Amino acid sequence: MTDPLVDELRARYPRVALTHEWLSVPGGSEKVIEAILRLVPHAEIFCSVYDPAPFGTDITDRPVHPSFIQRIPGATSHYPKLLPLMDTAFRRFDLSGFDLIVSSNHACAKNVRTPPGVPHVCYCHTPMRYAWDPEFLLQEDLAPAARAIVKPLTAYLRRVDARGSKQPTLIAANSSFVAGRVRDWWGREASVVHPPVDAARFLERERRVADDAPYLVFGRLVPYKRPDTAVQACRKLGRRLVVAGDGRFMEHVREAAGGDPNIELRGRVSDEEADELLATCRALLFPGVEDFGIVPVEAQAAGMPVIAYGEGGVRDSVLDGVTGVLYDDPSAAGLAAAIERFEGLSLDDAALRAHAQEFGPDVFHERFGAALLQGFDAQSMNRDDELMRTGDR
Fold it and tell me: Which residues in the chain land under pLDDT 70?
């Protein structure tokens, strides 16, 4: 069965270039890439580095063009250290002959040179956060020499990011929070198109929550997600907590747990174990600030409430008092108070699952497909405005 939207996009844009930061480890932004490819299956991909091994045929069965960075030994594993080269890598791509540029951006993918008269639609996961938010890098365990270059490096990256932000014709942000960053940091307006979340696979999962069920932290253990805050809050209240995930912040989390028998550090878990945790844990604790945050939507689809610090993408995905609790104090005491508030609520399972479906792949398909079509119209309007300014009619 054909898709009229896909047919219209193919007819309007016979050749499409899709730029993405790097293709090395599948994650949330790569799921967005796969969803974009369902709209423009004829697209060619341009990225800084490419390792086909962990990807399926949605990615591998098409032309993928890595940059010159690919030729640096170890680049597919150590690409974050090569960030200062990324702007040059993307600007060197020759995209002449394409009818549409789509960038999947959180660093430099939008910085490609857009050919004159060609629409460029940017799906913005975030502007370059480590360039604009000094707190982001300060949370990391940096060596003294690395800390010494943070200030000049971030100043350079801000200039690169600001210049690149002028390339897209149209910007779609993955949350209202990111749209605010686009406005504040880039001086541009962005529509909001939430990323696709496969909520359907969780909707029929049965919830089996005992009176003494633990709370849950789930995902990569990195500083900005503040998993240690969840540990501290649960220890303060004497509540059970399961921490499912691993990462470079694990030792900090272990120190925060202090051997408390109520705190279980599971490490990385299988899909089957994750499903069991979603079915049996009391609520998801989400104390960090995410650009969007797919895990809270998946939790709600499984009928699990979310207790989240009320900044970032969760303001779009969690309804306070309906599908969970949002709180304003980022400290462990603030989260502890939110847990106590949650324990006094009675939330409706059906409302949780219904809300999660608003972020499904079909919704993304329609909304981002409309943005791609709008990019053509926006490019035409920009060209007309330029002609009016120059008087060349």
Answer: 1, 134-148, 376-393
The pLDDT, as a whole number, for residue 140 is 55
Mean pLDDT of the chain: 91
**248 and 141 share one domain:** no
Helix (H) or strand (E) holding 101: strand 100-105
* C-alpha to C-alpha distance for 188 and 378, rounded to whole angstroms: 14
Residue 188: CATH number of its domain = 3.40.50.2000
| pLDDT tens-digit map of 89-110 | 999 999 999 999 999 999 999 9
CA-wise closest residue to 286 among 306, 264, 263: 306
**Total domains, the chain:** 2
What six digits make up the tokens of 77? 């594993």
Single pTM value for the model: 0.89
Distances (CA, A) of 217 to 163, 181, 278, 315, 374: 38, 27, 11, 18, 39
Judge if 52 and 186 occupy the same domain. Answer: yes
Residues 163 and 236 in one domain: no
Calpha distance 239→97 (Å, rounded) = 60
Contact 76, 53 (CB under 8 A): no
Residue 183: predicted pLDDT: 97
Closest CA to 194 of 55, 378, 366: 366
C-alpha–C-alpha distance, residues 286 and 27, integer Å:
18
Give the DSSP per-residue string, 126-141: -S-HHHH-HHHHHTS-
Residue ranges making up the domain that contains 219: 200-358
Angle in degrees, CA 186, 133, 318, rounded to 5: 85
- Tell me the Cα Rg of the chain: 22
What pLDDT is recorded for position 26? 85
| Residues in contact with 64: Cβ distance below 8 Å, sequence separation at least 6, in sequence order | 23, 44, 45, 46, 47, 50, 52
How many CB atoms within 10 Å of residue 306?
Answer: 26
